[in-house]
Amino acid sequence: MAPNTMDTSILDLYSLFHSDRRYIVPLYQRRYVWSQERQWVPLWQDIIGRADAVLAGGDVRPHFLGTVVLAPFKTSTRDVRANEVIDGQQRLTTLQLFLAAARDLTREIDPDLNKAFNKLTDNDCTQKHQEQRFKVWPTLFDQPGFEHVLLANSAEAVRHWVDGLRIDFQHVPQVALAYLYFSKELNTWLMNGPQTPAARLDALFETLNHHLQLVVIDLGDQDDPQMIFETLNARGEPLQASDLVRNHIFSQAAQAFPVTEVKRLHETYWTAFDQDGGFWREKKSRGRVAREQLSWFLQYLLTFKIGEEIADTQLFGAFKRWWNASYSGAQVEAGLIELRRLGEVYRRIESPDASSQLGILARRLEAVDTSSLHPLLLFLLTDATITPGELGGCLTDLESFVMRRFITNLGPKNYNRLFLTLIQQLQQQDVVTRQAVAAFLLSGEGESVRWPTDTELQHAFLYEPVYRQLRTRGVMTVLEAIDLQLTTGKQEQLLLKQAVSVEHVLPQRWQTHWPAPLARDGVDHPDAWRDRLLHTFGNLTLLTIKLNIDVSNGAYAVKRPQIAEQSALRLNTFFQKQFSWDEDVISERSQTLCDVALQIWPWPAMTSTRTSAAPIGLSTFVTSEATVRAASTLLSVPADSRVILSTDGFQVRLRHWPKQVSYAVRTREDEDLIEVALDVALPAADARRPSFTAALLDVTPVVELDFSEQEVRARSDTGTLGLNIFFPAQTSAERLEQALSHLMTLTSERIYQALGTPSTPPKTASERPARPALEAAVTATRAVLPTTLMFAEEDNLKNRDYRRVFHVDWPIQMHYELTDSKSGVTVALHDELDRQHPRRPMTLPALIEIQELVETTFPGVPLRSTLRDPKKAYMSINLEFPHGTAPDVLAAALLRLVELSATSITEALGQEPGPVESSTPPEDPNVQSRVSRRVAGAC
User: Which of 549, 553, 540 is nearest to 507 (CA)?
Assistant: First the structure.
């Protein structure tokens, strides 16, 4: 019997799970969402840390794993006693998956211990309902996957099942991934220690028995579970990753040292990191992201230390992996010394001597918004074994690579992965050389990795509209570099500190004060030729803002003397002796500036004579552009469909589809990703837009389910609708083709429906059996149907004996139906969501309430329901009318069913309900009331 008041106890895992007891997760709880970096890794480290302490001997302090809140749950006398999990379902589910992994590994190592682990995962019961054997019974969405994992009895069986799901792009349950993670880590730990696997298992079992604890709160009959759930999950201000890092470091220090030593460590090594208004707390923007300098530093540090790209959301988990591997416990001070050492170098990169080679490189990288080199620079300046001369050569070549690509407009798309690959290969060298770095960068052949040649740089200077391509700041950076290079020992070397602006010598509005260009051989349109050269480097210079305003759009005869007299830049000495200005002069000056640029950013000299210990290059680096192009050749599409190549990938347009609707595979300019997409480029005013909006609402949950290991993003703005599925840039062409094919399978039929176009040819009229009762009911219903509802036109085209009615805010599987059968015509509400569909648990309680309302509203009409039939995959509420029932009565019945159910279902699905209004109001205002009375009479 449940207590009347709340009871709190501290239980170890053995006590929690040893007795026959079920922990049932309610339907309203969210599905299992814990992940490797954020929860599994820390939990594994907590468990195995205590097990290692047991093996080492001595006292082992218990470790607190969290809190679980349980509420009473009524069971029959024959059922296993149970509790409802109010809070802690993620933790309990994870612990069961860990215990199942340990249980399966003990089967061969220690059969006796295997029986003890079985007792922690299985209840001893003979009930007909198999789910009662499980200690934890998760929410509806996770039950099939959880059951499969717990009954598989081996990691190999689970891995084989998961691999099959991945191949077919079927949903991979997160519970299966958790089991496989713990199984892998446990197996590694068991087989790689000085003790035997059996001895290590004994230590693990002792840990579970005595050293891992939870606070268990059992609510009484008088306690309000929902209020307690909301209180426990109230959200406060989230901690930053850098705050979590500090807390992790000094919580470990507190376990290893006395308070005075912890205080010393904090004051000596960490105080500067926390100083308000100091360097480390300054916000720094990179691209569209603004974070504190400390967060950027930690990201770059972990990138080269761990050898992975570290996203912001992964920062703390990655830090713990790195820190715990080398600096936990008594090694805390060594780790803090390492952080300070690396931090000082990072500050040199961010705030260097402006006149040094590193300072000039850092200034230019910031100007062109390229921070992807920071992990590589940190490595070269800290961990790499490299001479000062070789380091200077590496910096020259890295700047040449980046700036040549910037000027030729190739962009930094793959830089994160490219420079991470370079770091990984350099870390394998005993000594880092300039030759090794240059050889790596020269070996790239794709657009996203190659080093532009002298010829390409010359073409960019002479012919490309760089003012538009590189924007003002980019042009200023290049011209400032040229000015600095032109400065000799006879002039002062000055970095520009006063604000300057880019000036077009030949103005953009040249027609006002400048004569028209002269005709010349080979140029059919002189004005177009002038406009082409207008934005090239040869026509651009730097002036102070005031001088720029003064000369403005003036004629060259007015502009030149002021520039020659007022400007102190070496860049502008050209104007002291240049008394005319036309297209030929612009081209001549472009070539002159290009010659200087080739000196600043030279083609690699390869001056080092040292050879690398091993070949270094891009042999394993395949560009995402090449992968996408290869995927287009593998795809099979229906006849009359087209594959259209574009600059960033390819499109697929299916037969009978407008050009605004297509599938696509493409690379992304701003991220190291490939996206597989469904695109609907319809403006907001397009009459077809609502149909496509409803279609995307239908298919999004299905796509999210099957592509559960990828990020899926639905989009809807004024110009486009669509679905994007994101894959890493290294995804193979074969995998991309499979992903696109699967996306087309999941969505194309619904898109055909939104277009009003059949996905298969309709039968001819002679092949269609007549269904006059159904057609009459459809005609009557269409006249009073609310604007939020619409018939599925494909049902008529395919000559089905039913007609579905879709709600614009619902998934396609949730709909109304009119059905013609031998016994009569049925008016129904159908829930055909798959049992694993994330919205299924939301709709069942609403349907039960709706059924009670329908029974009361239609007392004389036979009602058939499948809500409580466990054998039925789908749920439905059916009102059965005999043949001969008037069409307007059937229409009124459907309308009444909509009134009873639409708001509840919409709310259950998490959508805002909208008003129910008729799209075609009856001519007689009393028609609706007469129809309602006829329904009541028929009932």
Answer: 553
